[in-house]
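fwd from M.: "can u put these together and see what the complex looks like"

so here's what she sent:
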Amino acid sequence: EAGVAQSPRYKIIEKRQSVAFWCNPISGHATLYWYQQILGQGPKLLIQFQNNGVVDDSQLPKDRFSAERLKGVDSTLKIQPAKLEDSAVYLCASSHTVNTEAFFGQGTRLTVV
Amino acid sequence: DQQVKQNSPSLSVQEGRISILNCDYTNSMFDYFLWYKKYPAEGPTFLISISSIKDKNEDGRFTVFLNKSAKHLSLHIVPSQPGDSAVYFCAASARYNNDMRFGAGTRLTVKP
């Protein structure tokens, strides 16, 4: 079974530029999560999809972050414009159903300079 | 939003001894709890979980204990091995929305 795929692995951009991350979850997984992990902290939930609908985006900075899940499968997370404090690892995870373990991708390390 | 707390940023134990990692939560709606292990430059990997209907779940060297009244769970690793050295994250979710929240992590170092 293929795991969660994320791209790119690394990205360096200047502040005020835009950036997009892509995630392909495990086939058949209805739930998809995007997390932001700042160095030394635990993953912070940004947004959760159930199929292609948003379940929770309460911690997503909606003035600059957006996310979509196309046809309930792949997902993209966009930041526009980026700020220095957005430097972090962005993790995508998926799970089959409620109250089951989530599987993580390797993450995208974003550096904003 | 500190619904899940791991108050010990680091733990060091000797190989062969027991490692005990602790986690506290505040949201009484959480009914499913997980532990993840993370190596550098990799995403977290699932280790073990426990449902709120249980107070203990065991998988080989790993055991998770849940104390619902205290809103506390712990991960026991016995015996600890150098390969267990990693950052361990506690996570919790609620059935009604499957919203999974993580603690800040505990870095475990197992010394040979």
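replying to her w this: Residues 64 and 70 of chain A are 20 Å apart (CA to CA).
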